[in-house]
Amino acid sequence: MARSSSGIVAGLTVVAIAAVGFLGYQASATAPAHPPKAAAPPAAPSPVPSAHAAEPAKPVAVPAESGTGSRVVYSVSQKRVWLVSEGGQEPKSFAVKPSTAHPKPGTYLVNSRSGAVTGSDGVPIEHVVRFATADGVVVGFSSRVDGEMPEPDQSKKTGGIRMARADGDAMWAFATINSKVVVLP
Fold first, then answer.
1. Contact assessment for residue 161 and residue 74, using Cβ atoms and an 8 Å cutoff
2. pTM value?
3. HSE-up of residue 142 (Cα within 13 Å, Cβ side)
4. CA pair distance 184, 109, nearest whole angstrom
5. Is beta strand 124-134 parallel, antiparallel or unpaired with respect to 71-75?
6. 54-88 pLDDT, tens per residue?
């Protein structure tokens, strides 16, 4: 009996490793490659730290009215997103540039995703996570491929809630189809 169950365990392990390898390949085949970045200019010498150095930034708490469970929380007024996992892990939080079309406060589900497309503002974007429609415009999270985060053109209706590329990578990994998105005013 011991040989039979150990053979089953070994077989299941091989199948699991193959499945993980396939999913990893599939993810890498669909994710756009980041273009090379220009070398940063040499940093200026750091000042000598004093005894009164500023404390590191404290994490911004998830708004209490954002509900429970695993969810993306988007506060339009705070221009901030939280990726909240179940299990007590510290949520990832980051600043965003809101679009010109804002979804009404409420709970939505991620309804589509695209690895790389051209945004409604004509700019190449990546890791697009769409969840709502506002003023006839599809609204979703994304990152510009060029890494810029300018203020949106207020004369145009756009739905892209823009974030830094590293934050876009985190959003892409977290917010899969049917993930909950809570929009707060």
1. yes
2. 0.69
3. 28
4. 14
5. unpaired
6. 344 567 899 999 999 999 999 999 999 999 998 87
